[in-house]
Amino acid sequence: MEKMNKLIDHTLLKADATQDQIETLCKEAKQYDFASVCVNSYWVSFCKEQLKETDVKVCTVVGFPLGAMASKAKAFECANAIEDGAKEIDMVMNIGELKAKHYDAVRNDIAMVVEAAKGNIVKVIIETCLLSDEEIVKASELCVEAHAHFVKTSTGFSTAGANPRVVKIMKDTVGDKALIKAAGGVRSKADLDEMVEAGANRIGTSSGVKLMEGEKSTGGY
């Protein structure tokens, strides 16, 4: 298994996050050499500057947290973030269109962001807590068809986060055609190990420091 630190997207997506908190996030990411920091797009250029001369990437979110934005708006948001220095994009799928079985619309929505990302990594948040198992399978298939790099479980802002059962469904669906990111509710080393065993390749969490220090977090993303 890859070293635990490189599984972690060190995350701060709260609406009231301040520059000081974002700076602390970056300092922690440098200290523990996490895979990335995951922040709202306003902070991308700031984080790029904070993380220069490290291999910690800047990840940002697009169409977050609802996914019901216009596809053109998502693509523009993605392109702007890439220009500002983001190397990874976590976009939210159009969940309502998936439930309505408007699969071309869902696929095209993802594909527009993938194109705007210009070869940088795109992870698609399918918000598994709002989907049936059959919808999780279909959403995962559509992500592969649209050439996304990852399928991601959750925003952390809906009714529930990740769990190993849905991670396994996603992994069984995509096989080696995409990677899996589990996010929301991963607060202990045991949680992380369960997600990885189920098939997760990346973990989104605000508890990265506590995970590295062997503690358990009591809340947060």
TrEMBL record:
Catalytic activity: 2-deoxy-D-ribose 5-phosphate = D-glyceraldehyde 3-phosphate + acetaldehyde
Enzyme Commission numbers on file: 4.1.2.4
Keywords: Cytoplasm, Lyase, Schiff base
Residues of the active site: D90, K152, K181
Domain of life: Bacteria
Pathway: Carbohydrate degradation; 2-deoxy-D-ribose 1-phosphate degradation; D-glyceraldehyde 3-phosphate and acetaldehyde from 2-deoxy-alpha-D-ribose 1-phosphate: step 2/2
Compartments reported by the entry: Cytoplasm
Gene3D superfamilies, alphabetized: Aldolase class I
GO MF annotations in UniProt: deoxyribose-phosphate aldolase activity
Predominant localisation class: cytoplasm
Functional summary from the UniProt entry: Catalyzes a reversible aldol reaction between acetaldehyde and D-glyceraldehyde 3-phosphate to generate 2-deoxy-D-ribose 5-phosphate.
NCBIfam families on file: deoC (TIGR00126)
Family per similarity comment: Belongs to the DeoC/FbaB aldolase family. DeoC type 1 subfamily.
PANTHER family: DEOXYRIBOSE-PHOSPHATE ALDOLASE
The name this protein goes by in its record: Deoxyribose-phosphate aldolase
UniProt organism field: Breznakia pachnodae
Gene encoding the protein: deoC
